[in-house]
Amino acid sequence: MTYRLFEGKEHASSYWKYRISPSDHLIQQVIDFLEKQKGGPYELAVDVGCGSGQGTVLLSKHFASVVGTDVSPAQIEMALQHAKEPNVTYRHCVAEELPFADGSVDLMTAMSAFHWFDRPRFLKEAHRVLKPRGCLALLNYTIDMELSHPDCCSQTLNDVCKEFYEALKPYRSPHLGVSSIELYREAYNSIPYPDKEWQECVWVKRPVPLSSYMGLVESFSSFQRLLREDPQKATELSRDICQKLMSVMRVTSEDTEVVLAVKYFYLLASKPQEA
Known about the structure:
Elements: H1 9-18, H2 24-37, E1 44-48, E2 65-70, H3 73-81, E3 88-92, E4 105-111, H4 119-129, E5 130-141, E6 146-148, H5 154-168, H6 180-190, E7 195-209, H7 210-218, H8 221-229, H9 231-249, E8 257-270
Helix pairs in contact: 1-3, 1-7, 5-9, 8-9
């Protein structure tokens, strides 16, 4: 079954505030693949494990209808609070049992969510609901994010970031294995479709306050586990890392702007015409 780790209202709120959604350029790469494999009209896109909906809304200008689904009522509630696009709706359901008819979906995406699913069951369900030549897009980013600031050495800054990530490793879910990218690579190899693509390095860069970077890492499942098990240790770790980062940058405010670089990877696959 789907691993359910992101369902609290506070966690859903932090998702909305801090998670980095794919860039328009990255979404366009997905649409270009769909265009090459199937072409229009683009009637229905489904974003599974949509969380608070940041990625879901990026699909709205490309499809007549977009549906975001998530196992967490709190995440769906957060997405609905920020819903503006009239062609985007949200449904509460598990990833492995989707409320869509056979052969009805043009594009199915999962953005930073597939690794939490029952992956074989989800891939079987995606095959069921996709139209012939419809496409599956599984996107995620690696934990080795990078910061830069004009007044300091980026290497020194990122050494502190690595210290943060290393401290969280013991709290990583065993469901994710050593590296989530390996789970996606395994999925890519297991999908029997002849038309598929694998891309391992697409950088998405955003200027953000340092506090937003801290909030992003604190929204990770590993930090949330530490927070549940030892709130004092989690708080002290976050405070110490933030102080070290500000010291390297020679600033005194968490509102100081940094450039956050996130490395995305993805797999794209097109269901055969006869399947």
